[in-house]
Design goal:
Distance between the termini: 12 Å
CATH topology: TIM Barrel
Order of helices and strands: EHEHEHEHEHEHEHEHH
Helix content: 25-40%
Number of helices: 9
Strand order of the largest sheet: 1-8-7-6-5-4-3-2
Structural class: alpha/beta
Bound molecules: D-xylitol-5-phosphate, zinc ion
Number of domains: 1
Shape: globular
Mean pLDDT: 98
CATH class: Alpha Beta
CATH superfamily: Aldolase class I
Length: 216
């Protein structure tokens, strides 16, 4: 499977996000990961659909929107109109099959995500409901710069096995949080092919080199 790199703009300089997103595109990244937080599902507040609308004209890369919000069903239309290409919703916050129908009706990609403490089996129904991608959190959502939770590797393996068993061997599995040039190999070997990285990419002196190394 081809490995895709999705840097998170949470780690970018918010005072110049448009330029930061252009820098991401130049670095060879594949997706722009947008960490939406509402201060309820997770304690911090980051940004909403307006930020997605603001960065849309600055890049042709797909905007991968990770909604860490309660009542995600009330926000879908705003993110679609803002230019989101993929909308990822937390299994812990909604009825996935119903919400997937709503998202699909807009013609954008629909994905599901689970937290580190949520059993991997909880996201299997999203695979069967036609998810375009599954995101496994490898840190507790809310902040960048945290340490990778190693138990995530087993969840990636179990999820990839399940995808193979139900005929979706090629399904994108995205992993998010604490990924570095050191641990990315284990994450890919376990079966993930979409890598979210905030700090590792934005702290790098040579973004293109780091993206290349993360892609292996
Ligand atoms: C955390 C976010 C992650 C985080 C990744 O709630 O979902 O995307 O920003 O940042 P790093 O790569 O710094 O852990
Ligand atoms: Zn994220």
């Amino acid at each position: 499977m081809n490995i895709k790199i999705a840097p998170s703009i949470l780690a970018s300089d918010f005072s110049k996000v448009g330029e930061e997103v252009q820098r991401l595109e130049k670095s060879g990244a594949d997706l722009v990961h947008c960490d939406v937080m509402d201060g309820n599902f997770v304690p911090p507040i980051t940004f909403g659909a307006q930020m997605v609308r603001a960065i849309r004209p600055h890049t042709n890369l797909p905007l991968d929107c990770h909604l860490m919000v309660l009542h995600p069903e009330t926000h879908i239309e705003d993110f679609v109109r803002a230019g989101a290409d993929n909308i990822t919703v937390h299994v812990e916050t909604c009825d996935i099959p119903a919400l997937f129908q709503k998202i699909a009706a807009y013609g954008v990609k629909k994905s599901a995500v689970i937290n580190p403490e949520t059993d991997v089996e909880k996201v299997f129904p999203a695979v069967e409901a036609g998810a375009d991608m599954i995101l496994l959190m490898s840190v507790h959502p809310g902040w960048g710069g945290q340490k990778f939770i190693p138990e995530t590797l087993k969840k990636i393996e179990l999820l990839r096995d399940f995808c193979i068993k139900c005929g979706r061997a090629e399904l994108d599995i995205e992993v998010d949080g604490g990924i570095t040039e050191e641990n990315v190999k284990d994450v890919i070997a376990a079966g993930a092919n979409v890598i979210v990285a905030g700090s590792t990419v934005f702290r790098s002196k040579d973004m293109a080199e780091t993206v290349k190394r993360l892609r292996g």
